[in-house]
Design brief:
Layout lengths: L9 E4 L15 H6 L1 H7 L3 E4 L3 E2 L11 E5 L6 H13 L3 E6 L9 H6 L30 E4 L7 E4 L29 H20 L3 E4 L13 H17 L4 E4 L4 H4 L6 E3 L9 H4 L23 H15 L3 E3 L16 H11 L7 E3 L59 H6 L4 H14 L8 E4 L9 E6 L4 E7 L5 E4 L3 E8 L3 E3 L3 E4 L3 E7 L1
Parallel strand pairs: 1-2, 1-12, 2-5, 5-8, 8-9, 9-10, 10-11
Antiparallel strand pairs: 3-4, 6-7, 13-14, 14-15, 15-20, 16-19, 17-20, 18-19
Bound molecules: alpha-D-glucopyranose and calcium ion.
The site of alpha-D-glucopyranose (GLC) has 9 residues, from loops.
Length: about 525
């Protein structure tokens, strides 16, 4: 049976910053509902919403205190059910964020686990057998240890920040053989956690959601160097879920499709960390240096995708056996696409993002080129990530149409630039980033060979590092995509090309023995 993800094009919504419907300064479910037509008209047919569950928000909701209840600031469980219905009415799909590897330090399970007396939750988190035994260096997959946080004599492992104690899924390799605190994945605590994850997923799927983006999916089992034990757990969980809910989709935040897809995920993301060289595309390691230009989609022509291509080809081979590789425009954890790209470069980046295989994921606001806001105070554990989480810019009215609250009561400040981009204005401008995205989404829909599961192959048109070129094809059609972000024209091998069906800039010229690709250009052409 074909799953809906095979035709899905996702829009990622950070719920706090998308649309506030009741004037309290923070986005909510009703706000999302009011913008579903906008999302659909742009050309998206699926949504991922960042965590919206009960939380003290020390990490923007990735620190959950009740996995079965939405955070009141967004609305009730009834309200999210309504959101699911409204999404489905429009023939769209919606996935939630599943955070399986840790809870909030204020979760009632953790409070029980902190007690001296043995109880049901004693073994549900990763604890050492005594306070002070916290050999961080020797243990893979643990970002820190907390000592003496309770009466319990032990240190607890942290999965990300101090507010996120790690749920126990066992150790693949027992390194402390003299003591017996390192449990096996088959032990009771880990097994109960696995069953609980299945229960949480079933709860929301029964209510009408269509699947999950799975947070830190590769982090379950500790000391798991090749992640084989973590893969086994996901085979178990995904196997169960996909059998019970054949249309449910799971997409991992793992960053290593060769592993994640073996774990039964429908898709995995390329991320700013991991072996994908994703950062060579639109940003680089000095991502907060706005003038840095060594990424590929730069006019300077200084980029190099050799490593990216090699990694992508390996991932793509894995995906052919089942599953997808998704290359996102950005997300809530990294500076926005616009940080190191100007408007022209962003448009070319979208040609790439929207003609690749795998489901596209566009982070809210990237479709209008929203800016990363430098130097705003950290909010809810965002730190440098906060600048990529500011309110969506809808129009020219108060608070850019995000909220009716007084400006100093907004979740985060609006981009202070009076020329900041907004949806209202970009809709009217044929050449805007927004309309480029929209045209590309239409193109993708019209040509099945550009779809999520059609074939893909890089082609080398020149010995230079530019342009980037690849072929997409299926039984109906074969298209060539050529993208030259550099501001120099590039001599390429002569190539027989048919009708050009999409261009940015001037596309190409054929000379007797060569093809010249114009600077800052992209085109999609039929191959004959
Ligand atoms: C993921 C999320 C990030 C969060 C972390 C801990 O990387 O994307 O926002 O802080 O996991 O849950
Ligand atoms: Ca609100």
């Amino acid at each position: 049976m074909k799953k809906w993800i095979e035709n899905a094009v996702f829009y990622q919504i950070y719920p706090q910053s998308f649309k506030d419907s009741n004037g309290d300064g923070i986005g909510d479910f009703q706000g999302i509902i009011s913008k579903l037509d906008y999302i659909k008209q742009t050309g998206f047919n699926a949504i991922w919403v960042n965590p919206c569950f009960e939380s003290p928000f020390f990490d923007a909701g990735y620190d959950i205190t009740d996995f079965y209840k939405t955070a009141p600031r967004y609305g009730s469980n009834e309200d999210i059910r309504k959101l699911f219905e409204e999404v489905h009415k429009r023939n769209m799909h919606i996935i939630l964020d599943l955070v399986p590897a840790h809870t909030s330090h204020l979760h009632p399970w953790f409070k029980q686990s902190m007690r001296q007396e043995k109880n049901e939750y004693t073994d549900r988190y990763v604890w050492t057998d005594r306070e002070g035994r916290n050999n961080v260096d020797g243990i893979q997959g643990v970002t820190g240890w907390l000592n003496a946080v309770s009466d319990r004599n032990g240190a607890v492992a942290v999965n990300f920040k101090a507010c996120q104690p790690a749920l126990n899924f066992g150790f693949a390799e027992i390194t402390d053989i003299e003591n017996d605190w390192q449990q096996k994945p088959s032990d009771e605590g880990p097994q109960k956690n696995i069953e609980e994850i299945k229960k949480i997923m079933s709860f929301w799927l029964d209510m009408g959601c269509d699947g999950f983006r799975v947070d830190m999916a590769g982090s379950l089992v500790k000391n798991d160097s090749e992640q084989e034990e973590t893969i086994k757990i996901w085979q178990n969980i995904n196997g169960y879920i996909h059998k019970k809910y054949p249309q449910a989709v799971t997409i991992s935040e793992w960053g290593e499709p060769t592993r994640a897809l073996r774990g039964g995920f429908d898709a995995d993301f390329l991320l700013s960390f991991g072996p994908s060289y994703y950062m060579d595309l639109f940003r680089n390691e000095k991502v907060l240096d706005f003038d840095s230009d060594t990424h590929f989609f730069s006019k300077s022509g200084n980029g190099d995708l050799t490593n990216f291509k090699r990694a992508y080809e390996v991932f793509y081979e894995q995906a052919k056996k089942g599953g997808m590789v998704c290359v996102p425009s950005g997300n809530h954890d990294i500076p926005r696409l616009s940080t190191q790209l100007d408007e022209d470069e962003i448009k070319l980046a979208f040609v790439f993002l929207l003609t690749l295989p795998g489901a596209p994921f566009i982070y809210y606001g990237d479709e209008i080129g929203m800016k990363y806001i430098k130097d705003i105070p950290s909010k809810e554990g965002g730190y440098h990530r906060t600048g990529a989480r500011t309110p969506m810019q809808w129009d020219k009215s108060l608070n850019a149409g995000f909220s009716a609250a007084p400006w100093d009561e907004l979740y985060l400040p609006i981009d202070p630039d009076e020329n900041r981009p907004c949806v209202e204005e970009q809709l009217k401008d044929e050449t805007s980033i927004y309309n480029t995205v929209k045209r590309l989404l239409e193109l993708r829909k019209m040509h099945s060979c550009l779809g999520n599961t059609a074939d893909f192959e890089f082609v080398e048109l020149s010995d230079d590092r530019y342009p980037l070129a690849y072929i997409r094809n299926d039984s109906k059609e074969k298209l060539l995509i050529v993208i030259n972000p550099s501001n120099k024209s590039v001599e390429c091998r002569k190539t027989e090309i048919g009708e050009v069906i999409f261009t940015i800039g001037e596309d190409y010229k054929n000379e007797s023995d060569k093809m010249i690709v114009a600077p800052c250009s992209a085109f999609v052409a039929k191959l004959i």
